[in-house]
Amino acid sequence: MIEEKFDAIVVGAGMAGNAAALTMFKRGLKVLQLERGEYAGSKNVQGAILYSEMLEKLIPDFREDAPLERHLVEQRFWMMDDRSHVGLHYRSDDFNEQRPNRYTIIRAQFDKWFSKKVQETGAVVLCETTVVELVKDQFGKVIGVRTDRAGGLVRADVVVIAEGVTGLLGTRAGLRDIPKPENVALAVKEMHFLPRETIEARFNLKGDEGTVIEAAGTISRGMTGMGFIYANKECISLGIGCLVSDFQKTGEAPYDLIERFKRHPSVAPLIEGSEVKEYSAHLIPEGGFKAIPKLYGDGWVVVGDAAQLNNAIHREGSNLAMTSGRIAGEAIFQLKRRRKAMTEENLALYKQMLDKSFVIKDLKKYKDMPALLHTQSQSFFLTYPQLVSRAMQNFVRVDGTPKVEKEKTTIRAFVSARSWLGLFADGFRLARAWR
Ligand SMILES: Cc1cc2nc3c(=O)[nH]c(=O)nc-3n(C[C@H](O)[C@H](O)[C@H](O)COP(=O)(O)OP(=O)(O)OC[C@H]3O[C@@H](n4cnc5c(N)ncnc54)[C@H](O)[C@@H]3O)c2cc1C
User: Fold this and answer.
1) Among 1, 106, 16, 14, which residue's Cα sits nearest to residue 301?
2) For residues 324 and 330, what is the distance between their CA atoms, to the nearest angstrom?
3) Which of 104, 106, 129, 305 has most ligand 1 atoms within 8 Å of CB, for mutation?
4) 38, 214, 406, 425: which has the highest count of C-beta atoms within 10 A?
């Protein structure tokens, strides 16, 4: 193992780690990046939507050679009951722009490419190297890491912890608590392969246009969770995730959920005849603002999923990871340039910079949402989707019933399910958590 001391060690070569490493390498810092996977991306799972703006800040010309699947021209939101869905679709030709705003990607390929970009700057990136411990001095300052390689102690002024959601290193070192089951979702995902033309016909796409569907409702059996269907070039990513605490409470099995999701009459025709080549499961941090642990200390900062920086409401994670990684890299560079030590006091700069970014502002905006969705999951993920579906069917079915009668039936159904007070309270709670 390498004997020399580094300016910074980055643990992990996911979105956050690569962003941090690239930022620091580009500014001339001596950085070592360690990844336990066989290659960057080999351990990573994501839907996945990539948000261009955040990547452009790191690699402005990424569109030239990044492994991108489709650029998104359409987003669909489905509220589902067992036999139907009520949808909100937004499609715009504006998204057929020169520098598209969002793409679907396949993480294993993308992370490999991202890591290559980091390595092209001359960085030392060691894969198949697991960091087993954050090493501290007698004052509690993190001074390096121990890896699973022989003689595996490596020293650095600062360690950027980009180890993802499970965050074992941080937990073991006492830097944060184990994430609570109500703050993490377990998602399962499958890749369904189909000929390109079939995907384009089924999703009404041409060329590299893409569409994504985010789905909520009875598919999660009253648990807090969502499903997704993303069209790639020659495959469809399909998955569903729910809070770990809800799985514990209900005893539901993730593979049952995904099987039921696939059999839903709105979903089955989209994947009919496909060949499933990949099945994976992964955690997603969903506790939001209130679940963010301490972000910095003597000799360390934490970024991305390891810091619970994930916006479950907007289904955004990789962009928060890239942004927090980049900001951590910039903060460390600024301290180095000013010859400041990597103390807790000085590394507070990372938090100050992050607070000013969309990352913390967005998470703060939805700070009450995770608790609301968690405590009211039966209403929001079971009762309302069923009521809305029945209301829609009542509205569109032409059967000679006067419209006034139809309206009364719908209102009666809502009131008998939730009561007037309950409906008002749900609306009020939702509006307050959304503001
Ligand atoms: C099913 C699913 C769908 C998703 N869809 C989307 C989406 O569409 N859009 C979006 O923006 N986000 C999405 N996300 C969230 C997104 O994947 C994460 O927010 C993002 O990957 C976080 O990046 P990260 O670098 O913090 O962590 P990760 O990507 O998890 O990377 C952590 C890295 O650290 C390595 N590592 C861990 N421990 C060690 C160790 N001890 N030593 C060395 N290396 C270590 C891991 O191998 C891994 O490579 C999704 C997540 C899931 C699970």
Assistant:
1) 16
2) 10
3) 305
4) 214
The whole-number pLDDT of residue 2 equals 54
Tokens of 73: 């021209």
Residues 43, 60: Cα–Cα separation, whole Å: 26
Q: Give the Cα separation of 188 and 18 in Å (integer).
A: 24
> What is the distance in A from the centroid of ligand 1 to the CA of 12?
9
Mean pLDDT of the chain: 94
The secondary structure of the chain in percent helix, strand, coil, rounded to multiples of 5, reads 40, 25, 30
Residue finishing a domain among 252, 285, 318: 285
- The ligand 1 atom at the shortest distance from the C-alpha of residue 185 is 53
What's the pLDDT tens digit per position in 339-368? 999 999 999 999 999 999 999 999 999 999
Residues spanned by the domain of 131: 5-66+106-177+293-365
Q: Write the pLDDT tens digit of every residue in 41-100.
A: 776 666 689 999 999 999 999 999 999 999 999 999 999 999 999 999 999 999 999 999
Q: Is the pTM of this model over 0.70?
A: yes
Name the strand (E) or helix (H) holding 246: helix 244-250
Residue 292 confidence (pLDDT):
96
Round to whole Å and give the CA distance between 66 and 358: 25
Residues 34 and 61 reside in one and the same domain: yes
Per-residue pLDDT at 150 exceeds 90: no
Residue nearest to atom 34 of ligand 1 (CA): 12
Strand, coil or helix: 122 = coil
Buried b (16+ CB within 10 A) or exposed e, 99-133: ebebbbbbbbebbbbbbebbbeeebbbbeebbbee
